[in-house]
Design brief:
Structural class: alpha+beta
Strand order of the largest sheet: 2-1-3-5-4
Shape: globular
Distance between the termini: 29 Å
Radius of gyration: 18 Å
Number of helices: 9
Oligomer: single chain
Amino acid sequence: MARNLTSISKLSRREGVQLHPKAIKSMTKRAYGPGQHGQARRPKPSDYSVQLREKQKVKRLFGVMEKQFRRYVTEATRREGVTGEILMQLLERRLDNTVYRLGLAPARPAARQLVSHAHIRVNDKKVTIPSYQVKPGDVITIKAGSMKSPLFSELSDTLKNHEEPSWLKLDAKKLVGTVTGQPVRADSDQFIEEQLIIEFYSR
C-alpha cells in the first residue's frame, strides 16, 4: 500500500490545515508554509492553484493517493446528485474514516493501521482494507483478542464525551459502532470546498 512519507507537520503547514493531532505544536509555533521560502510574500494564486491545493488538502486529510482519489471523483461524477457531496460521502464511508469518526482511533492514520492490522471487524468478519465502503446496517467491532490491548483497554472512559456524526451510533461501553445511515455534508469537515476539487478534475 502506497504511503506519503513526508512529515505530517510539514504537510499540515503546507495545506494550512491540521491533518493530525501531532501537527498542533508545529502549526502553532510556525504558522506559515514549510521550506526556505515559507514566510515569503507570494502573489495572488491562480484559480488552478487554488483548486490544486484544495485537492491536495483533501487527499492528505483522508490519506488517499492520487490514483484512488481520481477514482472517487470519477465514481461521484457518474452518480446522480450533487457531485461534490457524493465525493465527500464516498470518502466518509471509508472503513478507516468510519473507525476514526467513531472515536476508536485518535486520527485517520491510526485508524488505517488498526484496519490493516486486522483489529477491526465488520459484521463479525475480518476486513483489512482501509478503503472498504461501509453501508447502513453494518456493525463495526474490535477483534476479541485485541480488546485487552492498550490501544482499546481505556477507550471506554475517553469515549464518554465523544460525539459521533449523525450517520453513526456508538456503544461506548461495548466499543461497538453501527452505521445507521448515509453521511450528509454537514457531517464532513466544514473547511473543505469540494466544488473546487470537481472543477480541478473538470479542466
